[in-house]
Sequence to fold (175 residues):
Amino acid sequence: MSDSNEHELLIKTPKQLIYAVIAAFVIPIFVIILLAYYVSSSEKPAAGSNAFSEESIAARLAPVGTIDFVDASAPRVLKTGEQVYAAACAACHDSGAAGSPKLGDQGQWSSRLTKGFDTLWQNAVNGIGAMPAKGGNSDLDDIEVARAVAYMGKEVGADYVAPEPAAPATAEAAK
Fold:
């Protein structure tokens, strides 16, 4: 009858039994050790990834925006060219978005610098091409925009001087 063949054991000798017992204990222990090593190794990020660096984590956890409370009756403090650049200009001029010349790239700025400071300043104040007026920040004073233009020009070797605001007229000058 064929039923007796179906119920035969796979282990027929004591040597096979010893191998089966050893394999039943050694293989799972080996797998557990490998998994524990893989899970506990924190120094193996993906190639080229810095997603778990302290700087990246801090950037992701940073607040989306801030609120500045300003006394409306206080005199206005004008920003430097570098501050204006960081706040309004860097969004496009750092990446070259919409054809804007990158900060510090002499090749892209050379033809623009030949037009002179006043032309660049007027283009920045009024907008040109895809660039909005005052870099999209209408709260900027014209002097602040001029300072930003001077800052960007200096980054490519121009000898632009950042303008200072005009001195307020005194009562004696009016007499």
Q: What stands out?
A: Residues 14-40 form the longest helix (27 residues). The chain has two domains: 11-65, 81-155.
